[in-house]
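Field: COMPLEX_INPUT
Field: COMPONENT_COUNT = two
Field: RESIDUE_TOTAL = 695
Field: MODE = joint
Values follow.
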Amino acid sequence: MNPAVAQRPGAPPAPAWRAWRAPARLPGPVLLAALALLLLATLLFAAGQGAYSLPLQELPALLAGAWSAPADGPSGAQMVFFHIRLPRLVLGLAAGAGLGLAGALMQGLFRNPLADPGLIGVSSGAALAAGVSIVLGSVWLPELPRALGSWTLVLMAFGGGLGVTGLIYLLARGEGGTRVGLMLLAGIAVNALAGAGLGLLSFLATDEQLRSLQFWLLGSLGGARWSAVALVAGLTLVAGAVGLGLARPLNALALGEAQAVLLGVSVQRVQRTAIAVAALAVGAVTATTGIIGFIGLVAPHMVRLLAGPDHRWVLPGSALLGAVLVLLADAVARTVVAPAELPLGVLTALVGVPFFLLLLRGAAGRRL
Amino acid sequence: MNARLCDPEWRSAWGGLPGGEQPHWLDDDELDTSTTTARRPEARAPHGPGLNARGLSVRAGASLLLDGVDLHLAAGEVGAILGPNGAGKSTLLSVLAGLRAPDAGEVWLNGSALTPARVAGLARQRAVLPQETAVAFDFRVREVVALGRYPHRFAPSRHEAGIVQAALHSTGVEALAERCIGSLSGGERARVQLARVMAQIWEPSPDGLARWLLLDEPTAALDLRHQHDTLGTVRRWAREQGVGVLAVLHDLNLALRYADQAWVLDAGRLRAAGPPARVLSPERVQRVWRVRADTVQGRDGVDQLLIAAASGPPPEEHARQPRKEPP
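Field: COMPLEX_OUTPUT
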């Protein structure tokens, strides 16, 4: 302890109205535990929803049945659960976690709560790159899919996301932090370009390719196959492991780049890692599900409202809450018009856009 | 400063000015032999302990923001960088902090050269209070001050929580600890940031090297009482713990009261250096700031300047080309 400044003789006590406290916050670990429980409940709920209804009480029997294969082959319920429902749940989990984490990372990096992979064009950049490889890949680079297999799409989407994130970061980064207006305007430009590019691609595409492109623009978990799901889940885990390690440096970065340097943060390394990790998560998710907007905006914001801006809680909390939101949205998407499905991206936009407008109107907008 | 420049031993140690020649930027009345280097032996060795800068020049486009600035501050002293707007004070501070590499000259801190690669490693030895303080997101005051402990995360002190509390106390922001930083006034935010940078170097470093506190206009947003509280606190810190404090100040009377050393910058050049009472003569204040001033003695015997009125254009010998303001 420091005796020199422990005493401030003559300092008057602060007036009582100054001692006003901010609204209470949940301790970080409590929030994470609550979100984990919520995620579990959502998984159980979503497992039963869909064109083929699977009541909750049948789940234990289904799971048990997986190990003791009955003589007459798997039942219909088992087929639905293990080959359609479960991969879809895992994909939703990974996609939501990846998008939530990427949103939180980008907001920490840009030092602004409006940075969202969808809004600033990272998702559409990834989708455009993936679309290019679907439609033009066979013409220009026929060897690529053969050499990389199912990695082609993911790698292309990752490249697209990385390019857009880096570009917007370079554009919007200013002396005293991120120039938010520039960031959002650049996002509009990238989104417009990607929209035009995908439009052009759909003009060139064959009927089969057109269906895939459509799926990219609207976002859906319908493409869940175990091979793709495993890839996304693996990459999301990698992104999570690296991304969560950035929590403390991102906290220091909230003080500004210069102060972060003076506190001993290797700012450039942190920035590059955050950009790469966010692009990896968004790229992997977008390559498999198409553009699912606003999860990266809504999840981190809600976590900050509940537990404060400390990235040690915001990063994992956003991943958990993102997964909950995507799973819930998907459960709704495949039940409201069953047996048809609503596109998932449409649903998240319906919730996300009003939320975004409220944010713009509130404190975040004043700093534009 | 000038005394040291005139000391032959010191001069040869720098390998700089030939004997008998005055540095061009020093006014004649700067010659002062009362402060000898014998009192500050470390001053003889520019690479010894202390904060040393030699021949610092910084260029921005065609204009010189700093032009051959020398500076030496010993640990345990309070230094003040003074000068009109755009004189290069903040530029000098950022060079001394290692945030900006000089185009010429070098900085030595605690006996080793300050290079960009070393800046991060110095986090436990020196802290810098920025002029602009914008914290992203609604961190609470206590969390912001705790961020100052970031460099110690791998080797935390036994008193981590106590340090944050004591730092909050030392700048009088304890009562604001649970408030969101965004809800505070400018002056309150400045005091929170000061608590944060003090928390950063709260305890002596285990390797025994001196700690340094660089403050860019710490009093700009503060009311009168907090200006004095703040400078009193850091001076007590300097005296009792041997922390070297270097502050950019606008209020010359605060410099007269709290600083041991003062450097007057004007248009990127050092106009004077030495104890503030000698450096801040009414004549120099008129030349550099172009206001008329008289020296009066405060009730406690400290010289203070009474500013009478803005004076006319600068005297002929100091007429200069206007320079570009630093960004």
